[in-house]
Structures are given as C-alpha cells and as structure tokens.
Amino acid sequence: MGGNVLSSGDAASILFGVFFTLLVLRVPISVALGLASLPILLIEPRLSPSILMQETFNAFNSFILLAVPFFLLTANLMNVGGITDRLMTLSRTMVGHWPGALAQINVVLSIFFAGISGSSTADAASQSKIFIEAQRREGYDDSFSVAITAVSAVLAVIIPPSILMIVWGGVLTTSIGALFLAGILPGLMIGLVQMGTVHLYAKLRRYPTYPRATWGAFGVALLVSIPALMTPFIIIGGKIFGWFTATESACIAVLYAGVLSLIVYREMNLKGLYDALGETGRLAAVTLFCVGAASCFGWLLAFYRIPEAILTGVSAWGMGWVATGFFIAGVFLVVGCFLDAIPAIIIVGAILQPLALGAGLDPVHFAMIGIVSLAFGLVTPPYGLCLMIACHVAGIRVGDALKDTMLMLLPMLAVLALVILWPGMVLFIPRLISPEFLG
Amino acid sequence: MPDASAPGLLRRINLAYARFLSALLAVSVLIIVVPVSLQIFSRYTPLVPHYIWTEELARFLLVWMVMIGAMLCLKEGSHFIVDVFPVLSPKPAAVMDLVSGTFVMIFAATFFWYGIEFTEFAWFRISELAEMPLWLIHIAWPILGFTWMIFNGERMLNAVATLRGRA
Fold this sequence. Notes:
By secondary structure, chain A is mainly α. Chain A has helices spanning 8-24, 29-43, 50-60, 67-80, 83-95, 101-114, 120-137, 142-153, 155-158, 163-171, 176-205, 215-229, 231-240, 246-264, 270-303, 306-315, 321-338, 341-358, 363-376, 385-394, 398-421, 423-433. Chain B has helices at residues 6-44, 54-76, 90-121, 135-138, 140-163. In chain B, helix 1 (6-44) packs antiparallel against helix 2 (54-76), helix 1 (6-44) runs antiparallel to helix 5 and helix 3 runs antiparallel to helix 5 (140-163). The longest helix of chain B has 39 residues, at 6-44. The chains are: A mainly alpha, B mainly alpha.
C-alpha cells in the first residue's frame, strides 16, 4: 500500500519472526508481542512507539474486559466461601458410585462450576488443588489426574457464562445472549464424552468407587446447593431479558457469590477474602497485559493489511461452508497452541470473520466453532494454560501428562466436528428462546 | 549471610515495594466492583443515584488494576512464558534468564521513556465523563516501565551471581 516504507510481507516477517524467536528464548508472551511491534514502530516514519502506549491503553480501557477480573473473582469467592464444597458434595452423591468416582466428580463439578464462572484458568487452578492430591492418595495415576482436571476445566468457557463469549461478542459484534445460549448443548455434550472417557479409563485401570449415596443424602446436598445452582439462571436470564449487560452480569455473579459466602454459607473470613482478591488481580493482570500487547500487534497487522493478504489466497480455494468450518477450527486449534484465547480472538477472529460470513456460516455458529477450538487450545502445549496450571500444582512436567491429555481430547474433537457439521445443535436453544438475537 | 552489596539493598527495596503493590492490587480489585454495582442498581432503585461516570471510572480502575498486577507479577515471575526447553541445570538456566531479562529490560525502558511522553501528552486533558485529569491514568505506563526495570534488574543480578558460582 502507498506511503509505507515496509511492504506487507516485510512487516509480517518482522512481526512473526521476532515474536516466535523471543518465545523460544523464554521471553514472556506479552513482552514478545510488544517487542515484535517495536522495530516496525521505529522504522515506519508515520508510526512511533507511542502507538504501543496508546494501543495498550485502549485495550485495557474497555468495559468488556472487566468480565475477566469479575469471573475470576467469582470463582475465587466460590472457593473461599464454601460454595465449591457444597457443589462437590452434590456431585459426589450423583456420580460417586460410578467407577473412577473421584474423577467423575471432578468432571461434574467442572460442569456446575462452568455455569457460574466464565473462566477456565480459575477452574483449573481451584480444581487442581482439590482433586490432584486427593486422586493421588486414592491411587489414580498422576498423568490421568492432571489430564482430566485440565480438560474438564475447558468447559468453563464453553458452558455459559464465558469470558470468551463476552470478548468474542464485543470484538466481533455478535450477540452475547445468543452465544450464551448456543454454548449450553455443546458444553454439556463435551462434559458427557469426558465422563465416558473417565468410565473407560476407570474400567481398564480399576480405579476406586465410593458406596452409593442414598436418595436422602442426594436430596439434602441438592437442597443445600440450590442457592448456588440458581446462579446460572440469574446470570443468563438477566442477560437475555436485558436486565443487565454481559459485563454487568459478571459483576452480578461476583455480588451473588459474595452474598452466598458471607451471609448464606458464612464461611468467608478476611484472610480468605484478601487472598481471593490478590489471586484474582494477579491472574487477571497477566492475562490482560497479554491482551494489551496483542492489541498493538493486531493493530499493526491491520495497518499493513496482512490479514487481507493471507485471506486472498484462502478465498481462492472456494471452500463450501463445511470445509470452511473445518478450516476455521483448524486455524484456531493451531493458533490456540501458541496464543492465549483472548488475543487469538482479537487477532485471528477478525481475520477469519469475512471468510466465515462469505462461506455462509451463521455468525453464532462461527463463534461457537472458534470458541470451542480455542477452549481446546487451553490444554494443548506449548501454551496450554489449564494444562500448565494443573501440571504445576501436581509438580509434574507437561510432557508427562501429554499422552493422557491427547487421548482425552480425541472424543472432544469428535464433538467439535459435530458442532461444525450440525449447526442445528448450536442454534437450537438460541432459536427456541430468543430468535431475535440471530441474524 | 548478610550481604551489604547493592543487590542486597535492591532486594530489600523491591520486597517492600512488592508488598505495597500486593496490597494495592487487592484493594483495586475490590473497588472495581463498586462503580459497576452502582450502575446496575441505579437502574432499578431510586435509592441509588444515577451517576454518569460509573462506566468510565470502572474502566480506569481496570487500567490501574492491570498495570499494578503486571508490575507485581514480574517480581513474582508469573508472566506467561512458553516453555519449550527441558528443565535446565542452574548455570544454563541463568544464561537463559540473562537473555530473556535483556529483552524484558528493553521493553521496560520503552514503557518508561515513551510512557513519559504519553503522560506529558495527557497533561492538560480531562476524561469525557468523570472529567478526571487523564495523566492520572497515563502515568501508570512510565511507572510500570520503572518498576519493571528495578524488578528485572534484581532478577538479572541474581542470574549473574549464579553464573559467578555464588548462588
């Protein structure tokens, strides 16, 4: 394009070349993204490094991204306030008598958790602490415990509410209410195939079982958990009926978890609150700092029209909607190995959107393909945050848990294929409840 | 072993500074909830006044929360990295720390230098809704640059010490 010193190709090779080189050198991802942008900002006379300041500022100065600290705080309050414990008891009375009881409870608790919090990293961090040591004591293999904790944590961003859906809806102007509803069925299906996987493992490896809980115990656990189980209905209902915006719904989740912890279950003390706040701030900050640097990186990609350059090649293949769906999933799965999901949405989602719409994919269908693929990226190395967290808690290397993680991903990939091939599954609930959200 | 050298002093300063940031971070997370709650409840009850600046204030608090947390996490070494190498023995690990530390230093210096310019640029400007002076937010950029330089400096000095064989 006219007036620039660097051609699109030069700019792309500097951006990606520096970025990947620095990643290999163990430079933090946010720093690598910022430093990859720096040479271009210095070389191009019309640009200056102050753009790095301005773009990071613009990224953080966003009402949408408030959902990140809010959902993390919700999760942390659930843990210190006794909500997680009660949901755990409930899960135990439901699936405790199945083979691999503790691992089944792990998955079921993740499903409940996913309906309240929208953050997979929070799920991985808290459930690793609960389950990995406990499963080790009952004789489960470490690699299995780590893998099932990590893969079940990804449900948190697929089952609504979800940080990824809020960011996707905000960045790519898709209805967040429709995305919330669209995530329910794929999320539950992924949860089911995970329970199936646990069953197979438990049969083959003879993992232990608890005695069957009585119906009375189940009833009591359910009754105690009802206030906590109301959360998804409050959040998703409030969003759909327009009582509050998506970000505000995350704030409501914080307030509700706070009320349950302080007034209903009364298990939170000041120390617990302080730790919950500190943990929230740290994880939210490192996540969002990456988003800020990625925004500058993405801004430069757009400045040099690099996405268009890449896409002209792909559009010429003339793929139908099925092939396009698989192509999009493939791109997000690969990108998800190297990038956090939010920067990936900002950089790659914007690139792929015209391709998806051109091939006739529904925007909500496109979003669900992207979000499910990126969620799987949370457990794929080298940059699979949930897997890294679970390994860290267990004190084993990522490589040691890799085989079981990949085995567990296979049936989940089958669900992803189903999501691509059968748009009706994704769109069924949104059409039923709020057809006005769909285009 | 008492260490009277500059790194010893730097370590103590950094430790106290990190404790301060840690407390500030917890407070900032807590108060972000306030403006957003005000915004929601003011819509449904006349008891809560309907302020126009809640949304903007929440955004500005988020900016500060992210910047404070990002400063602190450099000290704690919890910024995300992609680890492709196997576990290294102390000396090669120290070399890697020095290499990546050099790049972090360049990044920190950029934020410090251009952050000052960024703050000056906002000196006489005020925000649209709350009419707050904008430099109050922009100043987080040079502060992050400076904070990262001293935190990262300590890490790099530690790596040098390891290489010299007195870890």
